Amino acid sequence: MKITSLARVLLVSVGLAAIPAGGWRLAAGTAPQNAAPAKASQQTVQMRIAGMTCASCAKGLEASFRNMAGVVKASVDYQAGQAVVTFDTGRQSVESLSKFVARCGYKVKETKVI
Ligand SMILES: [Cu+2]
């Protein structure tokens, strides 16, 4: 499941990079099979999160993170009040992830890129 969604994210990224504005038509002279996409740049952020009141909050937030485009890995710990999220910097940022947490009803107290 995890691998499948990661693969989907990668395929979508490759697709977006490979599809010209006009559609699937390949530009003359390009050789897509040789144009392996560069490994997406990734970052991991640790967030202190307030407002989680039970372990289910953490599980739910973790699942929500994992469904976000560009999120590679996510774990949320209720006891520690902390989330650790690895993301593709082309698709998410510390700011976008923080806003997402706020939209989920929690409060980001502190973030640290690790
Ligand atoms: Cu809860």
TL;DR of this structure?
The protein has a four-stranded antiparallel sheet with strand order 2-3-1-4.
Q: How does this model look, in words?
A:
With 114 residues, the protein is of the alpha+beta class. The protein folds into two domains: 1-37, no CATH class; 40-114, Alpha-Beta Plaits. The protein has helices at residues 2-18, 55-66, 94-103, and strands spanning 42-50, 71-77, 82-88, 107-113. A four-stranded antiparallel beta sheet has the order 2-3-1-4. Copper (II) ion (CU) binds next to helix 2.
Mass-distribution shape:
globular
Low-confidence stretches: 1-38
* Structural category: alpha+beta
List the domain count as a whole number.
2
Number of helices: 3
Annotate the secondary structure layout.
Blueprint lengths: L1 H17 L23 E9 L4 H12 L4 E7 L4 E7 L5 H10 L3 E7 L1
Antiparallel strand pairs: 1-3, 1-4, 2-3
The chain binds copper (II) ion.
Which features does this protein show?
binds copper (II) ion, Alpha-Beta Plaits, alpha+beta, disordered N terminus, 2 domains, 114 residues
